[in-house]
Write a structure and sequence with these properties.
This protein is mostly beta strands. It is 0% helix and 52% strand. A hairpin with a 5-residue loop joins β4 and β5.
């Protein structure tokens, strides 16, 4: 079955870190541009970061310098390392690519 499965969310204090994972099944993740997006309560979908097939990365200004997108081609997994988290980062995070979007993982930043 072709799918994406995101995981790694949770509750973290401001200033903390989390690493999100997105496992791809049924296709080779490195052959596609992959994206992380998020949706905060009461807001629309916000683009967070993208990595293309060449490994070039891009970030929203709101996360630049704090988040890092990467992938492990050996295990077809996409990552989002998040540091210096802020309450405004609270959202459901989604991975997407190949026309798919995985189920989101909740990130809550709160003291």
């Amino acid at each position: 079955e072709v799918q994406l499965q995101a995981s790694g969310g949770g509750l973290v204090q401001p200033g903390g870190s989390l690493r999100l994972s997105c496992a791809a099944s049924g296709f080779t993740l490195s052959s596609y541009t992959m994206t992380w997006t998020r949706q905060a309560p009461g807001r629309g979908i916000e683009w967070v970061s993208t990595i293309n097939t060449a490994g070039t990365t891009n970030y929203a200004d709101s996360v630049k310098g704090r988040f890092t997108i990467s992938r492990d081609n050996a295990v077809d997994t996409l990552y989002l390392q998040m540091r210096s988290l802020k309450p405004d980062d609270t959202a459901v995070y989604y991975c997407a690519g190949r026309g798919l979007r995985g189920r989101g993982t909740q990130v809550t930043v709160s003291s």
